[in-house]
Amino acid sequence: MERKCGFLIPYLIMLIAEGMPLLYLELAVGQRMRQGSIGAWKIISPYLCGVGVASVVVSFFLSMYYNVINAWAFWYLFHSFQDPLPWATCPLNSNRTGYEEECEKTSSTQYFWYRQTLNIAPSLEASGSVQWEQALCLTLAWLVVYLCILRGTASTGKVVYVTASLPYCVLIIYLIRGLTLHGAVNGLVYMFTPKLEQLSNPKTWISAATQIFFSLGLGFGSLIAFASYNEPSNNCQRHAVIVSLINSTTSIFASIVTFSIYGFKATFNYESCINKVILLLLNAFDLEEGSLTADNLNEMKDHLMATYPQEYAQLMPQIKNCSLEAELDTAVQGTGLAFIVYSEAIKNMEVPQLYSVLYFFMLLMLGIGSMLGNTAAILTPLTDSRVIASRFPKEVISGVVCFMNCIIGLIFTMEAGNYWFDIFNDYAATLSLLLIVLVETIAVCYIYGIRRFEKDLYTMIGCKPNWYWKIMWAFVSPLLIISLFIFYLTDYILTGTLQYQAWDATQGQLVTKDYPGYALAVIGLLVASSTMCIPLGALVTFIRKRLKRERVSTVA
Amino acid sequence: MLRALLLLVSVVAIAHAELCKPDAQNAFKVRISIKTALGDNAYAWDANEEYLFRAMVAFAMRRYSSKSTTQISNVLLCNVTDRVSFWFVVTDSSKNVTTVPGSEVEAAIRMNRNRINNAFLLSDKTLQFLKITSTLSPPVEPSTPVWIIVFGVVLCLIVAGIVFLIVSGIQKHKKKNKESTERENLEEKVEVTLENGIPCEALDLKAGHINGVFAAEDERFTSL
């Protein structure tokens, strides 16, 4: 997720326009209907059973690939108990005269991520074999999830006390450490200076909206599932407001920590870059040590260019232009951000083992908390349905679900697994979630009827929703989601063939490649299998009703 | 006599200049970064330090070839810059005006690198012999990687937790089943006669409770 400055304004606007109303809607639906997503939407209208199924399918895809992140967090956590940290230095090459070639070209943290953690293949086609270390960590991650969901949602609630509160403790420790780091101020200044040209770019608004969606967990069915266990008289309006405010405050708090650490890393890299240039010039021109410093570097460069033009021209390709802005602008996308950037920042702190353990433990807590929500979204419809729940106890159902997901997840531990992970990460949830939430809002407002919904809320809570909620549900949120949807579709169509970033070991950096045919087919299948559930569900119900009516008329 | 001596000295000096110059055959460039290594405790590079360097190189040559023929005067330094960097070459006193082959010098320095570094309080990075690569020491690796040990501990804890929860779940289930079957058995026996919900067998018809209100006490009734 890109975090750029001036992001706060679209983020807060999207929270008020989209986050809070939709959260309230889902909680109210779950609390009123007292069933998981499939049952709840069937009650609202029999033609909408597809919406629940689509939510479950999206949650299923998410649980398949999301636990791999927890596996990686475990891997880094277990490797944090060494001195020095394994990603702090490059390993030596075979004849011990220098460092490994691939590690020389890139940094030691990137080498640890791409080579020693993922052992990544050069492209999607070269699948390679399953990495046993990653497979072990994935199995452990699934065992932890199974332990937490074993006894059902009641016990999951107690686990969430731990997984939700521990990250706050770690964030506070990191806030104190981060703000006292050298160069942290640069990151904070970067975060808070508004860049007006970014506000006019629609991509900023899109990413703010998507961010709100994912951080609140709308459309996955997990909110409905959890709310169905609430007391019917629970004040879900107050809870929706409190939860979304806490969520956003936490996001901003986490951004402050992130940006202070980012600033530290950028300043450190900038100063190393400058020191490298100084050393290069000192060695080439045999100048006295200490004659070149960061302050007089530019004047001295001009002076040397004037005095020794030929030698300077020879050196030119090696002299990099170091810029703090460029370091701060390097936005690493996706899961790489959490692992590469932070491990790079941590290795330069004092007592890096402590901070590393804390950070990856926090990441693990957050990841497991998300997994619990996902698995609850899948299990609640399964345990609600009398067909399955009567035959098997819930331990067996949870066990089967975890086992199946673990086996499928082994795909992501292969050498090309990270590319498949990126496919799932980018395409499994985004479009489908938008469609699901759009259909949910329209269903509640126009099919179920907003007056009926108001009455239900009045019976449950004792107060009717005021005009803000009604306007958001009926007009603003659907319009917003439709515009997001249109934007995503046009973006996919305009960019032509989809591309991905592959790691090139010979160059030591990412290169762009096109997806092969079967990968595109998988992407299409991912998007279609969840979105098609909605019209298919309506069609199946329609056909069933027609058949029933015909049977009744023939009998009569 | 004096003229011959002067001629000899000048010849030797010219020969030395011929032998030691940048990129000469069998010559090595050395780069020293004292301020980077020692910071405030840095010493100045002067003629005494140069003498020590020549002595260390001569020592290295003696140790390597184990013949005591190399003298300090055999080591020539030239082109000392402010950086501090210079070139050096080792002459062979047995053969006239020739230098010891570069490979021998390299091997000698490699063997005694640690001693040379320590004499100057520097390291491989701050006392660089530009053509001589140093052997890097690999990091200490324990026989079993640490991460497997931590993994094993966590795995055992989680599996123990799962087994405990499953077993306690099964026990609870069994207890519930036993209770419900016991209640069923009790209800079967009692189906015969029930008086106010109390099974008749439980009532002891012979023993009874004397109700004090209705107890006949002779004194209460007036005597006829």
UniProtKB/TrEMBL annotation, chain A:
Q: How does it sit in the membrane?
A: Multi-pass membrane protein
Q: Which GO terms describe its molecular function?
A: L-proline transmembrane transporter activity; metal ion binding; proline:sodium symporter activity
Output the GO biological process annotations, alphabetical, semicolon-separated: glycine transport; L-proline import across plasma membrane
Record keywords, A-Z: Glycoprotein, Membrane, Metal-binding, Sodium, Symport, Transmembrane, Transmembrane helix, Transport
The compartments listed are: Membrane
* Binding annotation for Na(+): S215, N247, L366, S370
Q: Which residues form a coiled coil?
A: none
Q: Where are the transmembrane segments?
A: 6-25, 46-66, 159-185, 205-229, 241-262, 357-379, 400-421, 427-450, 471-490, 518-543
Cited InterPro entries: Na/ntran_symport (IPR000175), Neutral_aa_SLC6 (IPR002438), SNS_sf (IPR037272)
Q: Name one GO cellular component term.
A: apical plasma membrane
Instruction: Name the PANTHER family for this protein.
Output: SODIUM- AND CHLORIDE-DEPENDENT TRANSPORTER XTRP3, SODIUM/CHLORIDE DEPENDENT TRANSPORTER
Please identify the protein, giving its name as recorded: Solute carrier family 6 member 20
Q: Which gene encodes it?
A: SLC6A20
UniProtKB/TrEMBL annotation, chain B:
How is this protein positioned relative to the membrane? Single-pass type I membrane protein
**Species for this entry:** Taeniopygia guttata
**Source organism superkingdom:** Eukaryota
Bilayer-crossing residues are: 146-170
Specify the Collectrin-like domain's residue ranges: 24-224
BP terms from Gene Ontology:
positive regulation of amino acid transport
Its subcellular locations are: Cell membrane
Example of a GO cellular component annotation carried by this entry: plasma membrane
Entry keyword set: Cell membrane, Glycoprotein, Membrane, Phosphoprotein, Signal, Transmembrane, Transmembrane helix
Report what the protein is called. Collectrin, amino acid transport regulator
Q: Where is the signal peptide?
A: 1-17
